[in-house]
Recover the amino acids of this structure.
């Protein structure tokens, strides 16, 4: 008899819990929960790119900023309503995210990391110095969210909007990693040349990974704008980069549930230490080092020990098929090392 | 002409410092094929240590330089133990993540001990601020001291690398790790010394630089990126390349800032990194690398 508590149930419970938060919590907790939702989106996007597709890029904070600025500037400069400006901001981030792929295709490892880092610094500089468009270092205010036909205030409005969007994006990421696309990402991560020899088009899938991650970060940015009501370049700096990186490392690289857990935990920690910048830096840096050293697959490896836990194509964990179905023929095959080939048909039969 | 001379002098001076930091990045990359993202922050910490000795405790400048170099050696070795050694066998991403983590820890420590938000800590100048004329170019005596110091450090480093036993072991390890191990070199230890020496050089650069710029906790990462641009321009595996790249980045920054727009000064090195990586990935001095299957 299998315990029916897997990653699906975990996510369902988490989202139910988040849905009732506005009824039980004060405005500050509501704000933190909203922030957690946005960071879940950011962590998912980054994990698709880094954890699944294996592209170690450092420009995610910049895409987040581009999404936020795109949305805010469309509202303020062009007077678009939020519901039009937000997709615009997200698309802008996606386009720029894809555009930086073309050099990225030629680069890997350290070169990719550093060129995307240089891009992130460059875009930070643009936000600060292109005063005639971005209002420079002082930032600017954006109008309150107005969902006027709906009987809902701006705070609750942005919360439930974020909740819905996050849920959709979690489901999308979940389905993506199970699909042909997710498998192609993992194949590229595990060996580019092997993936190529299997007929996977590197350019197309890498571009797709960058586009997806840019889109996720852009959506998070578009939601961030009305949540804060105010944008300045400060929120999208290097520290933002380390926050997002530590989220996916703490949660679990190459895991959807891991991204969700990592984002939630790190947002809570960030808020607890909000007063002390130097402590924040020391704590986040140390957590990153500690996890890379002692638990490189993140918190999610603890959950995988639970009986009945399963997650589609969760990566970086060779033993996953042994854990997943003790009663299935896969278990016997797993013991002989044929796990990977045998587990897929076994799962299919189970459904 | 005056403007040109002024820009030339300041470009060469800052370039010398970038060259020193780029040297550390290159040496570590050559030996370990990893980039130490915390290199700039190690530089920053060494600068603050020298500040503590020199300004807060009143020790002579040269003594605090020596102490900062020694501290850099120890901290660099520690950094290798924490963020590189345990991850050597794992993926590159782990090493990068760990050094990024280390860089933020160092930044947080510096912010906690020496300065809060936006504090810039001045370092007293060593020479009088009156410029002197050198072949028609006005130069600050301070710049000459920095340049002389930087060149001395470079020569010392080259001599160390070429003539000492440890330097030769580093070369051998960088060249072929397996072969080095076969002839009895303890490569693990060599990696540690490589990090340590690289950080010492950065420490010397920090102490030389402190009197002309200011020290602040966020300087590390900016300096790391600029020096990385220098190292990439030089091919990332070539030590003379790193030096030439450093001077080039310094000059590009000074001239683009002086003649085009002061805003460009900061951003030019980011543009250089992106352009070089896209169009000239082997740099000016790097050898061709084979694609490994």
């Amino acid at each position: 008899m299998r315990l029916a508590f897997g990653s699906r149930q975990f996510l369902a419970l988490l989202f139910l819990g988040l849905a009732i938060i506005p009824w039980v919590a004060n405005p500050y907790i509501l704000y933190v929960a909203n922030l957690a939702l946005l960071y879940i989106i950011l962590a998912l996007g980054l994990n698709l790119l880094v954890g699944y597709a294996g592209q170690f890029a450092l420009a995610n904070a910049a895409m987040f900023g581009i999404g936020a600025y795109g949305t805010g500037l469309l509202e303020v400069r062009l007077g678009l309503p939020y519901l039009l400006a937000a997709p615009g901001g997200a698309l802008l981030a996606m386009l720029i995210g894809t555009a930086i792929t073309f050099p990225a295709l030629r680069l890997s490892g350290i070169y990719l990391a550093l060129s995307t880092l240089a891009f992130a610094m460059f875009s930070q500089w643009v936000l600060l110095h292109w005063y005639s468009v971005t209002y420079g270092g002082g930032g600017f205010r954006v109008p309150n969210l107005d969902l006027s036909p709906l009987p809902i205030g701006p705070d609750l409005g942005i919360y439930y909007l974020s909740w819905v969007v996050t849920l959709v994006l979690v489901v999308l990421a979940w389905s993506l990693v199970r699909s042909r696309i997710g498998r192609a990402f993992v194949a590229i991560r595990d060996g580019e040349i092997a993936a190529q020899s299997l007929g996977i088009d590197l350019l197309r899938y890498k571009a797709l990974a960058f586009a997806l991650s840019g889109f996720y970060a852009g959506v998070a940015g578009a939601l961030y704008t009305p949540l804060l009501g105010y944008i300045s370049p400060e929120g999208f700096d290097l520290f933002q980069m380390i926050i997002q990186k530590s989220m996916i490392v703490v949660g679990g690289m190459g895991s959807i549930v891991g991204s969700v857990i990592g984002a939630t935990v790190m947002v809570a920690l960030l808020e607890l230490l909000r007063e002390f910048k130097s402590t924040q830096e020391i704590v986040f840096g140390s957590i990153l080092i500690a996890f890379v050293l002692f638990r490189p697959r993140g918190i999610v490896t603890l959950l995988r020990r639970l009986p009945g836990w399963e997650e589609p194509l969760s990566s970086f964990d060779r033993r996953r098929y042994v854990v997943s179905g003790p009663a299935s023929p896969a278990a016997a095959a797993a013991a002989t090392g044929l796990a990977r080939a045998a587990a897929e048909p076994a799962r299919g039969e189970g459904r | 002409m005056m403007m040109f001379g002024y820009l030339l002098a300041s470009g060469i001076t800052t370039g010398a410092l970038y060259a020193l930091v780029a040297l550390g990045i290159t040496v570590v990359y050559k030996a370990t094929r990893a980039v130490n993202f915390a290199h700039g922050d190690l530089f920053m910490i060494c600068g603050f240590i020298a500040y503590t000795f020199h300004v807060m405790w009143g020790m002579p400048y040269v003594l605090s330089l020596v102490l900062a170099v020694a501290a850099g050696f120890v901290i660099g070795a520690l950094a290798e133990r924490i963020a590189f050694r345990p991850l050597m066998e794992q993926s590159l991403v782990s090493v990068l993540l760990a050094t990024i983590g280390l860089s933020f820890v160092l930044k947080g420590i510096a912010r906690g001990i020496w300065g809060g938000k936006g504090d810039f800590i001045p370092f007293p100048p060593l020479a009088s601020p009156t410029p002197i004329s050198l072949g028609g170019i006005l130069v600050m005596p301070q710049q000459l001291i920095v340049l002389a110091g930087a060149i001395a450090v470079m020569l010392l480093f080259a001599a160390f690398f070429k003539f000492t036993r440890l330097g030769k072991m580093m070369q051998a390890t960088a060249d072929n790790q397996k072969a080095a191990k076969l002839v009895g070199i303890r490569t693990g230890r060599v990696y540690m010394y490589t990090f340590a020496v690289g950080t010492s050089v950065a420490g010397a650069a920090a102490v030389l630089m402190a009197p002309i710029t200011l020290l602040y906790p966020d300087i590390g990462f900016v300096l790391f990126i600029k020096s990385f641009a220098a190292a990439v321009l030089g091919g990332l595996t070539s030590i003379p390349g790193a030096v030439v790249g450093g001077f080039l980045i310094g000059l590009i920054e000074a001239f683009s800032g002086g003649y085009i727009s002061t805003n460009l000064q900061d951003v030019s090195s980011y543009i250089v990194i992106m352009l070089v990586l896209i169009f000239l990935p082997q740099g000016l001095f790097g050898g061709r690398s084979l694609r490994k299957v």
Observations:
- The longest strand of chain B covers residues 132-134.
- Chain B touches chain A through 46 residues (CB under 8 Å).
